[in-house]
Design brief:
By secondary structure, this protein is an alpha+beta fold. The chain contains 12 helices and 12 strands. The mean pLDDT is about 95.
């Protein structure tokens, strides 16, 4: 296990993607997001993604020099074409458009097409919350199908995540962010790197047998939706909102299975911000007043575990499994970067 301060890890990521062809500003955005994911405790969306991103560049699936653009817009909407730039860059671009329009006119809906893997959606929804904007964001199947529909014996869906953040001026933003599959694909990669078993009821092997071995996923297995029919239903909504609704097949040069849907509204849309915050704090206090159940220290709101982990990892550093570090080191060498040399400086 390797342990690094966030600043060192950020420099590693910046150096790799600059060498891979990204401009310094884009490389900084990617680094900030991957490291933020680690700080939040979601190592599944951190540097273990670097080998696949570099491979995607090699395969022509990511254009490191591309810039996202607005295809069409109204005062309350926009269609963003990512041009297969890095998903983190496209995500920030689209999020900032949604924030700006929501602050100006109250609400905004944004369609995003041709975006590479964005990673953890809470990065973007909390970017909005920090500016007083409530944001909802969802993505459908943007890679290979890997999750079976409820009652199905073959994969059809992706992990189809959903995220929502509400601004909180007196503590961590209230943030929901989860895959509609029983486990995120990246967490299977983390378990594999750590040589750990998965929880039950997340995965089946290629023959449809229940499994807790992460290797079975990479050998033709597939995931199940969380919560049975309920998680499946959410996955379907994510699929339809980020597919047919956003027009991922309609616009010229835009390919299928590439959509993201964003909806943003100003937190002070219905009442002054001061009154919104007072009402939010009143609601939060109700949750905090509930005595913790056996085995729990307190009742937490969505987003609080990540905020606590962030504080801890800022102080103690970020642990990287040796298998992950070795895989990133090998991939980085393909663009002429020795990450061990960077972290020794």
């Amino acid at each position: 296990m390797k342990q690094l301060p966030a600043s060192d890890l950020n420099q590693v990521v910046q150096t790799i993607f600059t060498a891979a062809g990204a401009n310094p500003i884009d490389a900084q955005q990617i680094a900030d997001i991957l490291v933020d994911n680690h700080l939040a405790g979601h190592d599944s969306h951190g540097i273990l993604r670097i080998p696949e991103y570099l491979q995607s560049i090699k395969d022509g699936e990511i254009d490191p020099s591309a810039n996202p653009e607005i295809l069409q817009e109204t005062p309350t909407s926009a269609v963003v074409k990512g041009n297969w730039s890095f998903g983190q860059v496209v995500g920030n671009f689209a999020t900032d458009i949604a924030i700006k329009k929501a602050l100006e006119v109250g609400v905004c809906a944004v369609s995003v097409v041709q975006a590479a893997h964005t990673g953890r959606l809470a990065v973007f929804t909390e970017r909005a919350a920090a500016q007083g904007v409530v944001m909802f964001m969802t993505i459908g199947t943007v890679d290979r199908p890997m999750t079976a529909p409820y009652g199905g014996a073959a994969p059809l869906l992706g992990t189809n995540p959903i995220a929502i953040s509400l601004p909180n001026q007196e503590g961590p933003h209230v943030t929901l962010d989860f895959a509609t599959s029983a486990i995120a694909a990246g967490k299977i990669k983390v378990a594999k790197a750590k040589h750990e078993a998965l929880p039950p009821n997340c995965l089946v092997d290629k023959n449809g047998n229940p499994s807790t071995d992460p290797n079975d996923f990479f050998d033709g297995g597939f995931m199940l939706p969380f919560g049975g029919h309920k998680g499946y239903a959410l996955a379907v909504m994510a699929e339809l909102m980020s597919g047919p609704l956003v027009g991922s097949e309609y616009f010229p040069g835009v390919t299928q299975r590439s959509g993201i849907f964003i909806f943003a509204l100003k937190a002070s849309l219905f009442q002054p911000m001061e009154q919104y915050n007072q009402a939010l704090q009143k609601s939060i206090k109700k949750f905090k007043a509930i005595p913790p159940a056996k085995g729990f220290d307190e009742v937490l709101l969505p987003g609080e575990p990540e905020a606590k982990t962030h504080q801890k990892r800022i102080q103690e550093g970020i642990q990287i499994p040796q298998d992950t570090w070795n895989a990133v080191k090998k991939a980085a060498m393909t663009v002429g970067v020795d990450i061990d040399a960077i972290t020794r400086n």
